[in-house]
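May I ask for an example protein's residues together with how it folds?

___
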Amino acid sequence: MSRTRPPGFLPTLGKGGQGGFWRHSAGATVDTYLLKGKAPSLDTTALPTPTLPASGEGAVSSPAGGGGWEGERGDSSCTRISQSPPPPLFQRGEISAKWAITAPPTLFLLVFFLAPALIVVLASFQYPGEFGGLAPLTDPGDGGEHGLTLENYLFFASDWLFAEIFLRSFAVAAASTLICLILAYPVAWMIARGPKKHRNLLVLLVILPFASNFLIRVYAWMIILGPQAAFALAVNGLLGAFGLGPVSLLFSPFAVLVGMVYVHLPFMILPLYTNLEKHDPVLLDAAQDLGANAWQRFWRVTWPLSLPGIFSGSALVFIPVLGMFAIPDILGGTRDMLIGNLIKDQFLGVRDWPFGATLSIVLTLCVLGLAWLAAWAGKARRAHA
């Protein structure tokens, strides 16, 4: 085989004198090219690629498939050593495994969440049935109402009473969330900073009320706040000492607020504890070494780090309180109706399903709007941080 040397390249024998190389004469740290035919095993993928002549004797060109260099002469062509990564193994099997894991929950959400939500949206544009429920979408032939309408949304916007109930519901939800945060933060901090051997027991005590029925716990507050209960007598006795008349604690906004806070307090404690437990105490020690007092260490270190837990706990409290109807029904009075009670009455009492669906859609849009505002505020805060 003829071995015509390309310009600037020197011949070099392989191991044992077998085979040959063209090595560029510019230095020892240049790429190496093998003559086609007898090529010893050599890995030069880590070496830099030299500049090859574009024309003339020994000119090389990149092959159409990529990955090598071929000279113009058939008997003196040279090829650069290259290694292509092997194709991923079991790629099809990995995709199948991912679908096997994600398909069941996705199907569950589509069937039991998205489909009912679409049904409620459609129901909000329908007429109420003659005996309750929903009127048909097509003409039944009896002259009754049918089809789609905006009447429900127009009726909602025509009466200020519904807006007042919405505002009252948001006020109760905000107050409950704030009180839960004030009560839960010290408890979560105490658990997170307590001895590790006691943490599990303290967390168990936080979630212990969930072991009993929800309604039983709410009815227990009827006994505690009753007019002849020790707590009510103590409160009225204290008010009487200041010359104030007795008050009824039961069937009042106070009773509703107490019940809301009692039921949802664990939902604020657990996210805060999970967040506070992960804080590195070294950060507080460093702040103390820099001269920060206890308040400054809390406000400048602990509080900013605990904001994710605060946001999570606030969402877990605010949204359920907004739609709660059992506690106002049991502990509240006639003027303590919230949006959850109104929706429940439309479906189960009046049986005006379209208007109940309308109230549900409006409530959902309000919650989504608040969530968007919270996300926007958090993003703006991080941008200015």
User: Anything to note?
Assistant: The chain is about 60% helix and 5% strand. The beta strands are 9-13, 20-24, 32-35, 60-61, 70-71, 78-80.
